[in-house]
Amino acid sequence: MLKIHRNFINFYKTERKIIIFAFSIWFMKLSIVIVNYNVEHFLEQCLFSVRKAIANIEAEVFVVDNNSVDGSLKMLADKFPEVKVIANKDNVGFSRANNQAIRISTGEYVLLLNPDTVVEDDTFTKTIEFMDSHPDAGGLGVKMVDGKGRFLPESKRGLPTPATAFYKMFGLTKLFPHSKRFARYYLGHLDNDEINEVEILAGAFMLMRRETLDKCGLLDETFFMYGEDIDLSYRITLAGYKNYYYPKTRIIHYKGESTKKTSVNYVLVFYKAMEIFVRKHFADKGAKTFSFFINLAIYFKAFLALLSQFFSKAVQPLLDTILGYAGLAFIGYFWGNTMVYEGDGTYPITLFAIILPIYLLIWLVTSYFSGGYDKPYKVAPAVGGVFLGSLLILILYALLPESLRFSRALILLGMIWVSAEMSLTRWIGYLLKRPNFQYGKNAKKRFLVIGSEQETNRVEQLLQSTSIKPDFIGAISPFENQELPDDFLGTLKQVPEIIQIYKINEIIFCSKDISHQLIIDKMEEWQSSLDYKIAPEDTLSIIGSNSINTRGDLYTIDIKTINTNSNKRKKRLFDLLSSSLGIILWVFLAFFINKPFAFLKNCFKVLSGKYSWIGYCELEDSDANRRLPKIKKGIFDPSANMSRVGLSKEEKEHLNLMYARDYSLSKDINFFFRALRKS
Known about the structure:
This protein is α/β, with parallel strands linked by helices. The chain is 50% helix and 14% strand.
């Protein structure tokens, strides 16, 4: 009798679990799937907005992490325990990662959402209501704006037929942005603010019925990145459903369509994805002809991408080289002809073929190491580098044989010319309003922070601890009917006037106190030349994007001193000089070093560029190290400065943090010699 009773109880428990599971499936309205790869801070902001938006919806949230190393998993565990996490050991791609979560999700609707997005508080309620009232809708996309509130054209797209893809690849879409024929890729003829049936949904926000996915299948894993949203959208229409563009709610998408367009990898991956799509769906409609044109476009676009990268990096050094040598050659000819040989000749060819190019090379190299080629290009470091180079040239001059010692006046005149040329070209670039040129000092940031007194104080402290060094921080209350704290400048209604009076160039919204809908409203209203950021609640980061051509901008506590251009150059220069001297003087140094052959081997390692003399203390599975700026693996580490061994994990983490935050060349030199004495 007891056995029968136990069996009954076990049967009851099993049935109860099945019933509860069935109820959860029945009542689960929405499953949100986010694929993450090393965008911890953007994912955090996205999830804060999602948490608000699902407050009144039966929803589940999945984050599929493709082996991130930036601390994303720890952040999820600490701040979003309700999120269901799938932690992959490899980067399995966008399609496969989404499918992993879709297969175990239970919602009536499935949403694919990018981690670099921010949704409005009512985005899910509005879109689900629309889908519920339109049973013919298989998929839905929303109006997307970038980090400045500007409309992103990929919010609505047409089917990339061979003709449509051809128009886009060869620039006709951009030339005729509102043409029904040439701009069909972005459906430029449709109103951005009207609901319309569309063919293709953007993978950044793709809401679909589960029954639709059951019928047409999941994402095609042949597409590793790009094209999978196009393929799935098309299959939805083939299954007899409609895709809708729904602009009654909006999302911020920090990574615009133009992101990485100048990347060769982007060109290859994106257009190869388009080729896969055409071969799959248009095999009987001239796919071979299209493949020919698409491969032609790939090589053409890749060439343009390489050309763009070359010009962005090399145009200024090349210009300085050409103009610098032209001026030096003229000076050499003029000075030799008029002052040295008095009309009876000029300097020998050795000067023009060897000496002057060496002088110019020294000036260019010292200018580079002084920051003369850091973007934005500035006059002061360029000219400072030329003066430093002149000192090196004078030292070199004294060591040259008599036959190669030409007039010291050439060094002085050459220094004046190269300094003048570098100053002039950078000034002209500034006058032409080229983005990478700056004349004078950096314009200091002047901020408005919109939020409660508590949140604005928190954001102000955070800004003060970054590398931004704000010139002005003013607080704005989002509450119109409340008494303003004493140090607040005004309310939202007064912002346009405050911007003019205080010359504000950036606005930060505290999302704890102001809805994302209102944030986007104000971004669209105030757009102009302002930059915008959002400060999520309970975080040490402020996030935004100043251009659709950038993935995003992040303000956080400044621990990146070690990764400034200047310090990276100093660190590499020290590595090169010390390892070169170590090899040259090894025979002598071998008498003073405990392991001379190991030291020689390390010199070659550092010289090759694979290692640096000083790196971080080695730690296993340390989130602290993952958050630090990436540097080369070190032969030695900051613990060389410690008098004892056997440091704890916490002590090593602290040493690494201090090294990254307060890096200086003198520290590397100090650690290097201390480590040598210990070895």
